[in-house]
Amino acid sequence: MDIVSLVLSVLRLTTPILIAASGSMFCELAGIQNLGLEGMMLGSAFAGMLGSLLTGNVYIGILAGIACGGLIALVHGLICVEWGGIQNISGLGIYMLMPGLTAYFMRSIFGASISAQVSSLQTSTWLAGIPVVGKYLVQMSPITYLAFLMVPLLYYYLKRTPGGLRIQAVGDDPETLETAGVDVWRLRNRCVVFSGLMAGLAGAYLSLGQLNRFAENMVAGRGMLAVIAVKMGRWNPVGVLCAALLFGFFDALQLQFQIQQWVAIPTELVQMIPLAAGMVALALSSGENATPRAFGKPYVRRRD
């Protein structure tokens, strides 16, 4: 495998992790944990495929995936922000529900674990005319370019705008922020929904940008890698990007192990490489001091 193919593979595989992690970062900075990313991505991958199948338009499919992620996040926000429910339990409930739900609909509609082919957005043909590098750039989905473009934009928003500073403040001291006249619950709900929209885009990318169909459990742990990337990146967009690239590299590596069969290792063990790398990296990381002080703590609206 040549170096250019490896780089392209890493970028493609980094994309869903980076997108989901970027949304989760906002959610966690606001003090809400979202362990349901995996389920949100899976449900959105299915919704994106179905939207593209029914309309024949890949862009409508992508919008359907984004909308699905946002709707699931609304439920998570209702439980965790408005009702003060246990955030881990809500997230894990979404994580456990989506595989069964999508499998049920897959068997009901297609009678199989893999859908029919649909319109997809796997290449960027508009870049083909660029000299020298155009033939490489065309091989990636526009969603990949969008994912990497968002990093400096999100960094600027968090570090240089009043809205970004409020998000960081609500995750550290919501009571003081409420005293200053900021609607803590609205701000937290917006961050939760944003994380769902981003998870929706990441899921739609898997079924429409990386492939052209849906397969059961196709997220394959990338949602949990996104959660780990946020903690490894210390809730900073640049750090999250570096962590996502690391996981993208290990994901590309395990694929090459399966394709090239360099070593006689069972496929199941090879597929564990990205998650194992994530667990080791998380254990070795020292991002605890960067954790928002109110992270995971309910802040229920007073009913005076």
Helix-strand blueprint:
Blueprint: H1 3-29, H2 37-55, H3 58-82, H4 87-109, H5 134-137, H6 142-160, H7 162-172, H8 174-179, H9 184-210, H10 222-232, H11 237-260, H12 267-270, H13 273-284
Helix pairs in contact: 1-6, 1-9, 1-10, 1-11, 2-3, 2-4, 2-9, 2-10, 3-4, 3-9, 6-7, 10-11, 10-13, 11-13
Kindly describe this structure.
- The structure is a single chain.
- 70% of the residues lie in helices and 0% in strands.
- It has 304 residues and is mainly α.
- Helix 1 (3-29) packs antiparallel against helix 9 (184-210), helix 2 packs antiparallel against helix 3 (58-82) and helix 10 (222-232) packs parallel to helix 13 (273-284).
- It contains 13 helices and no strands.
- It starts with a helix and ends in a 20-residue tail after the last helix.
- The protein has helices at residues 3-29, 37-55, 58-82, 87-109, 134-137, 142-160, 162-172, 174-179, 184-210, 222-232, 237-260, 267-270, 273-284.
Q: Tell me how many strands there are.
A: 0
**Main beta sheet, described?**
none
Mean pLDDT: 89
**Regions with pLDDT < 50 over 5+ consecutive residues?**
none
Number of helices, counting only DSSP H or I runs of 4 residues or more: 13
* Helix/strand class: mainly alpha
Q: Outline, from the CA principal axes?
A: globular
Please report which band the strand proportion falls in: under 5%, 5-15%, 15-25%, 25-35%, 35-45% or over 45%: under 5%
Cα radius of gyration in angstroms? 19 Å
